[in-house]
Write a structure and sequence with these properties.
Oligomer: single chain
Radius of gyration: 48 Å
Organism: Crassostrea virginica
Number of strands: 12
GO molecular function: cadherin binding
Keywords: ANK repeat
Largest sheet: 10 strands, mixed
Distance between the termini: 107 Å
Protein name: Ankyrin and armadillo repeat-containing protein-like isoform X4
Helix content: 55-70%
Strand content: 5-15%
Structural class: mainly alpha
Length: about 1450
């Protein structure tokens, strides 16, 4: 049972009137006992009791009732009510609910304060002389739960503002001993011994707020000062100069109160505002705006982050409830109703109500995250600020209809919940408050009972308490004695300053400033003698006691003065009678309680000061929303009150001109005219822009009202004749252009681009620089670039490149780089002479200028050969080479990107950069930096330099660029891997040997890693490297099969159906990795692919292809997978969707490339495979006309492929003789060995190699066509690919006796020829061992010189009439041997070939394309392995009809 209710009869308790009176008197004595120590607490309690303008009976002056709830409350005759409190969803989510016991506690404490002590809750943290902080609570709220909540929330708000705090338990311990620990002097409050204090603060529990888990992100968005910026340093000093007079104030208020009979719905909120307690003699309007700009950032930070800590959020939730209860209970007191506290739950524990009298100081470390303040080194500081409650509210509104409909239900639910908790016999940890849902929102419903109140007679406990306070305690504790009074002064001001306060005026002034009510009353009586002249006397600043009280928000002091009939409208510097009144000062300083008191007591709202400002103007300019609302509620026309000066401003115009965003929002909500102009024709937007208050402009932009077209007004200001307006507008646009992503569009649509371009052509460098900055901020957008082009900005920009201002140079370079991306602008800028001045800027010493210039050059040269040449011509390459060695990673990155742009596709520039020595630094940078951006740019430069440039490729290989680039493949960032892979492949060049070298340097694990990625670029390079590594190399193919490569490739087929390019590459890789040299098959990879389930997937693609190109590549891949592999052929035949009709249909495609590739697919299926040939024939066969266009083509590659195809497919071409087709095809291939193009020779030789182990008679046809002589001759070629391909062909021809004898003779007659053959044939090709052994024996035995044909000896083969072709009348034994030799060239497995014999380059490019080409190129060639004839097969020279019969028998 609470002390307050201890004397009240409880249900069932019987006592007479005298017993009740005695019990109530004991209860009163017990209650007031807590205020008795020290005595000053009781005296101050009495002082507050007598001097509250709204509650004290001793204040007899007429006053106006606060509007809203207090004035409009009408409880009728009911003694119950229900309060509906909206649930906090965040607290509810964390299962933190409202507790009935806590509700009863705060209502009980408010009842004590409002009905007995004449006090309302608030707090003000005040600085003590020694940097401690005094918790200035109204005396009646010391050691109360409300007081504890106020201290906790206010301390956390100030700690968050300053950046450090003590947890409560450590704060209390530290506060007890810090003065003694630091040996603080009682004279001046300074520590007597200098030492480093920070370590002591930290060791005693002080915490960096930036490390608190709830507030660690609070300071991320604050713009901290740059120590290197002199302007920022100046602003910091200016801010810290005034910091002692700045504080943060929280005001709790009611957004809306709804009422229906006995139900009251509250909707509370809070505002945080900064208070600058300085008048115009210490801070003018301009200086205030500078300070306020910084303070508004602090306010926003506090609003957004304070409630992130759940405990603070819960405490604020209770305080919002208190902010409603305060005016509600005042109103009930006015209606003679008082809560029936006898029906309340027990008090909270003493710990839950104990309040701190003082708080210890704080310190900041250099590494603390918060940089809002910059205190002196090794200095600790106090906290100051406070929390107020706005008593006045808007008029009561009707609740939602649902509340009216559920009225009875709500009342019943609330009463039952209340009766349930008060009927509990044991104390519970939590007493649940019932909830109800209204309009989708949860509300707590609190039931409250009232009884009649007659002050000071009823109820009985009120009489006992009032008598005790007003008679017994006043008699005991008053008047105040001097000694305890001076002790209080010493506590607040220290001994040294207290000695000065004994002067006549200084003591009362200090008491008025600090709010020491009873001391002020005592000193006024004793020192000033209640004389009016002394009470109104003004100090050296022209301020009276009333002004000081108004400035420092001391309504009790104001009441005390008004009781002595002090003029409420007394003016500062009253000699002139034009100075500000107390209300002016309260409005300026945000003193809400003081302003409310003055207004209620009829202070003049429309009085003007010496500047022609009324109080509302001060409140608006200094951004005090609560005071604006206070004044507007009492006199709504005041919001349009004009200043009495030359400007004639409204409050809204003043708020906009000072950047008072809260005031602007408030005045707009109150209905202020937003279209009003001042005497100079400036509206709200103009004034905000002219004073550079972009926060106001951003709000108005978001509000988007047709009468406040911000963008149009700003653009219009750009063209104003007033230079100041131009300057302000363009500077505002500079900020706004980056504040939100979509603002560029608004500037564009408002016509801002032409206006900005016009500013660029002005003579004012500041305007030019800022205008360029605005354009830079928005020129990344294509529409803006188009607008700049249309405005003909290029010539102006080029001219500005010669500006002496570095900022202009840098920004113009950026703009040029942006507009150069518009089609046609690269050439336009070059024609206007833009490249030479850009190159000249490369001589600048500023990093930013160099970076932006290099970027501009990069964009100008991208894909523009003329500009690439121009950069080289004007000396740009030397600068770029130099920049690669400077100590700036940003510049290195930009330079590398520029090198990539000027060298891409430009051999002259590639060579020039090579000659300038630019290649080595690129590799060194990759090896020497950890910056991935720089590495990537360098990789791009390497790629561009190596493109189609053998000299650069060889140089990069020499300086070990592949090793450096491989580092990028290890990066976790896929984009970085992509760039590294592309650069590596660029180094692969156009030769198979170099491609294979790069693939080997990359390594199989890294290639497989590329295949595991889902990006097309990595997959593309991975596939190309797989081809380079595995092309005609059985050993590497098997190594790839041992990894997850095939699994991933098949997975890609299934998962990338929407990416035709990926599908195409994967299909090509699968096919190529199944064949070796000369179409030898690789059964290991074929088996692996089949095991991964690729065949059904490929058949699906064959029948449902995304394109013909994919379809034909699928056909080729399937041919390779089943090539000479019976098991895979059977698997394919089992697929119901596969038949040769699809392939034959492709021969009818409109695309020549598709038809040629379709022929190649059929060729692979038919290669050394009689059943497949028969199946094709049965499907309809092929007409010779399919091949004619290609055989007669001027494209030599097409001729080679077509010739190869007619040889292999000779038996299924139904309208031509197979012998003639074979002879024709072989002849054409041999003829192409004489081509002037090496790649054609390589292709022809490779195809001849494949044909050499197919049918008997074909090698003889090659011999007859003179192939051996040509192939031998080509062994001396400078091209290693030509040598390798010809050596392979000769190797296969050695299995033909005639060809072997001719080659043997050539080797005998040509010293070194056999060595060339041996060196170039490689490990994967075949050569007859009989031929090899014969030559070795010849070398061992030796031959007489005269036997050598070269010396005139007889030829090895006697001349014959038919010497140009092999004899056809050979014996059966000879034929058998020939067949045996044809069979005796089985594909060798697992051998490496250092010189693969197939070229992958195109006729017009020395580097293979990573995309699948439309026209067939040698890169698409497949060489299936040979397969010996099956047992039982007829001899190769059997007739075709006989063959058909045998096919039928076999099938």
């Amino acid at each position: 049972m609470s002390t307050l209710n201890a004397g009240t009869p409880q249900p069932g308790e019987q006592m007479d009137e005298s017993q009740l009176q005695a019990k109530l008197e004991r209860a009163a004595s017990t209650y007031f006992e807590k205020f008795s120590t020290p005595a000053f607490r009781m005296q101050e309690l009495i002082g507050h009791h007598k001097n509250h303008w709204l509650l004290s009976d001793d204040f007899k002056m007429a006053y106006d009732q606060p509007v809203g709830l207090i004035k409009g409350l009408n409880p009728l005759n009911s003694n119950v009510c229900v309060l509906m409190v909206p649930e906090d969803p965040v607290l509810a989510e964390n299962k933190i609910g409202l507790d009935y016991r806590e509700v009863h506690q705060v209502i009980r404490e408010l009842t004590n304060g409002i009905y007995v002590l004449n006090q309302t809750p608030s707090i003000s943290l005040e600085a003590l002389y020694d940097q401690g902080t005094w918790c200035n609570l109204p005396p009646g709220f010391n050691d109360t739960h409300i007081g504890q909540l106020l201290i906790s929330v206010d301390y956390m708000m100030k700690s968050l503002w300053h950046g450090a705090y003590f947890p409560k338990e450590k704060r209390t311990k530290f506060n007890d001993k810090w003065r003694e620990h630091f040996q603080v002097s009682k004279q001046n409050g300074k520590p007597e011994k200098e030492k480093s204090f920070l370590s002591d603060f930290l060791s005693h529990g002080m915490v960096d707020m930036g490390k608190d888990p709830d507030y660690c992100d609070a300071y991320n968005d604050l713009q901290f000062d740059n120590d290197d910026d002199p302007d920022m340093t100046k602003e910091r000093i200016h801010f810290m100069k005034h910091v002692e007079d700045i504080c943060m104030q929280m005001t709790l208020y009611q957004k809306k109160i709804m009422h229906e009979k006995d139900i009251y719905m509250m909707e509370s909120d809070l505002m945080i505002s900064s208070i600058v307690r300085l008048l115009d003699d210490r801070i003018n309007h301009n200086d205030y705006e500078r300070v306020n700009t910084r303070l508004q950032m602090h306010e926003n930070m506090l609003r957004e982050n304070l409630t992130k800590k759940l405990d603070i959020r819960r405490q604020l939730f209770i305080l919002k409830f208190v902010s409603f209860l305060t005016p509600f209970l005042i109103g009930m007191r006015k209606r003679m109703k008082i809560p029936d506290t006898t029906r309340f739950l027990p008090d909270l524990s003493e710990d839950q109500c104990k309040t701190e009298e003082e708080l210890p100081p704080l310190m900041l470390g250099d590494d603390f995250k918060c940089k809002n303040f910059y205190p002196e080194k090794n200095k600790y500081f106090h906290l100051h600020g406070g929390i107020n409650i706005d008593f006045e509210t808007d008029e009561l509104e009707s609740p939602p209809k649902e509340v009216i409909h559920k009225y009875s239900e709500i009342m019943t639910l609330a009463e039952q919940g209340f009766l349930k908790v008060i009927s509990m016999e044991t104390i519970k940890e939590h007493y649940e408050v019932p909830k109800i849902t209204v309009d989708g929102k949860e509300y707590y419903v609190i039931f409250l009972e009232f009884e009649t109140f007659f002050n000071p007679q009823q109820p009985a406990w009120i009489k006992a308490f009032s008598t005790k306070l007003t008679i017994d305690l006043e008699r005991k504790y008053l008047p105040l004695q001097d000694t305890p009074m001076w002790d209080v002064f010493i506590k607040h001001f220290g001994k040294k300053k207290t000695g000065k306060l004994k002067a006549q005026m200084t003591g009362p002034r200090a008491a008025a400033i600090r709010g020491l009510v009873i001391i002020f009353v005592h000193m006024c009586r004793k020192t000033l003698g209640q004389q009016m002249s002394r009470l109104t006397k003004q100090d050296e600043h022209g301020l009276s006691l009333l002004h000081h009280a108004a400035m420092n928000n001391r309504p009790q002091i104001i009441v005390s003065l008004l009781r002595q009939t002090v003029d409420i409208n007394s003016r500062r510097n009253n000699i002139l009678s034009t100075g500000p009144t107390g209300l002016h000062i309260a409005a300026r300083c945000g003193a809400l309680d003081a302003a409310a008191c003055l207004l209620a007591c009829c202070a003049g709202q429309t009085l003007y000061d010496q500047d022609g400002w009324a109080p509302i103007h001060h409140a608006a300019f200094f951004d005090h929303e609560a005071i604006i609302k206070l004044m507007a509620r009492r006199n709504s026309p005041v919001i349009e009150l004009l200043t009495r000066n030359d400007i004639r401003s409204t409050p809204l115009l003043l708020a906009a001109s000072s950047g008072g965003l809260s005031a602007v929002k408030c005045l707009i909500r109150l209905g202020a005219d937003i279209s009003r102009l001042d005497a100079e024709g400036n509206g709200m937007v103009n004034l905000a822009a002219m004073r550079f208050h972009t926060n106001v402009l951003e709000y108005l932009i978001e509000w988007s009202h047709e009468k406040a077209p911000v963008w149009k007004i700003l653009v219009k200001m750009l063209t104003d004749v007033d230079l100041g307006k131009k300057d302000s507008a363009v500077k505002c646009l500079e900020v706004l252009s980056t504040s939100k992503p979509e603002h560029w569009k608004s500037i564009l649509e408002a016509g801002g681009i032409p206006a900005l371009v016009t500013l660029l052509s002005s003579e004012n460098e500041v305007l030019q620089s800022v205008a360029a900055s605005v354009i830079v901020n928005i020129s990344e957008h294509a529409s803006v670039r188009q607008a700049l082009t249309k405005a003909k900005a290029a010539p102006i920009l080029i001219q500005l490149l010669n500006s002496p201002d570095d900022n202009i140079q840098s920004r113009v370079a950026i703009i040029l780089s942006d507009i150069a991306s518009v089609e046609g602008n690269q050439s336009l800028i070059a024609e206007e002479g833009g490249i030479p001045p850009l190159i000249n800027l490369m001589d600048s010493e500023l990093e930013e200028v160099l970076i932006n210039t290099v970027n501009a050059v990069r964009v100008l040269c991208a894909g523009n050969p003329a500009n690439q040449d121009a950069v080289a011509e004007h000396g740009g390459i030397a600068f770029l080479r130099e920049f690669l060695t400077l100590d700036s990673e940003k510049l290195k990155a930009a330079t590398a990107a520029c090198i990539a742009a000027i060298s891409a596709g430009n051999k002259n520039n590639q060579d020039a950069l090579l000659e300038a020595g630019a290649l080595e630094p690129l590799v060194e940078i990759i090896n020497g930096t950890a910056n991935e951006t720089v590495r990537v740019k360098c990789a791009n430069a390497i790629e561009a330099l190596a493109q189609d440039n053998l000299a650069c490729q060889q140089t990069f290989l020499r300086i070990k660029a592949p090793t450096a680039l491989k580092k990028l493949l290890k990066n976790f960032n896929v984009s970085v891997k992509e760039h590294g892979a592309k650069a590596l492949w660029a180094l692969a060049g156009s030769t198979t040997s170099q491609q294979k070298y790069i693939a080997e340097k990359t390594s199989i694990p890294d290639i497989c890693s590329m295949l595991l990625e889902d990006t097309e670029k990595l997959l593309q390079v991975g596939c190309m490297m797989s081809i380079a590594l595995g092309r005609e190399n059985i050993e590497n193919q098997i190594k790839l099969a041992q990894t997850e490569a095939f699994n991933q490739l098949v997975r890609l087929l299934r998962t990338h159906k929407d990416s035709p390019q990926v599908i195409l590459m994967v299909i090509q890789v699968l096919g190529i990795l199944c064949v070796g040299v000369a179409y030898c098959n690789n059964k290991v990879t074929q088996r692996k692919i089949a095991e991964e389930g690729a065949i059904p997937t490929l058949v699906t693609y064959l029948n449902q292809p995304p394109s013909e190109e994919v379809q034909v590549e699928v056909a080729i891949a399937l041919g390779c997978i089943v090539l000479s592999n019976t098991r895979n052929q059977e698997l394919l035949q089992e697929e119901p969707g596969f038949n040769f009709d699809v392939l034959l249909d492709l021969l009818k495609s409109k695309s020549e490339a598709i038809r040629l590739r379709a022929g190649m697919a059929l060729t692979i299926f038919a290669f050394n495979n009689t059943p497949q040939q028969y199946a094709i024939r049965e499907a309809g066969g092929i007409m010779y006309s399919v091949f004619e266009p290609f055989l007669n083509s001027s494209i030599e590659y097409d001729v080679c492929y077509a010739a190869f195809q007619i040889v292999v497919l000779a038996r299924v071409i139904v309208d031509q003789d197979q012998v003639m087709l074979t002879a024709s095809g072989v002849t054409l291939l041999v003829k192409k060995l004489h081509s002037t193009e090496d790649n054609v020779i390589v292709l022809a030789a490779s195809l001849l190699s494949s044909l050499a182990h197919t049918r008997a008679g074909i090698p003889d046809a090659m011999v007859t066509s003179g192939a051996i002589d040509v192939l031998v001759d080509k062994l001396s070629s400078q091209n290693d690919q030509v040598r390798g391909a010809c050596a392979v062909a000769l190797g296969y021809l050695t299995f033909n006796r005639t060809a072997a004898r001719i080659l043997f003779s050539a080797c005998r007659n040509t010293p070194g020829l056999y060595k060339k053959l041996e060196e170039n044939i490689g490990k994967n090709a075949k050569i007859s061992q009989e031929f090899v052994q014969d030559f070795k024996r010849a070398k061992i035995v030796g031959l007489p010189s005269q036997c050598l044909e070269i010396n005139g000896g007889p030829p090895v083969i006697p001349p014959s009439r038919n010497s140009m072709r092999p004899m056809t009348g050979t014996s059966r034994a000879t034929t058998a041997r020939a067949v045996s030799r044809a069979k005796s060239a089985p594909g060798k497995r697992g051998q490496r070939s250092p010189n693969p014999s197939i070229v992958v380059s195109t006729p017009n490019s020395s580097r293979p394309s990573t995309a699948s080409p439309l026209r067939i190129h040698p890169s698409s060639l497949f060489r299936p392995a040979s397969s010996p004839l099956r047992k039982g097969a007829r001899s190769p020279d059997a007739t075709f009809k006989t063959r058909l019969s045998s096919w039928k028998e076999e099938i």
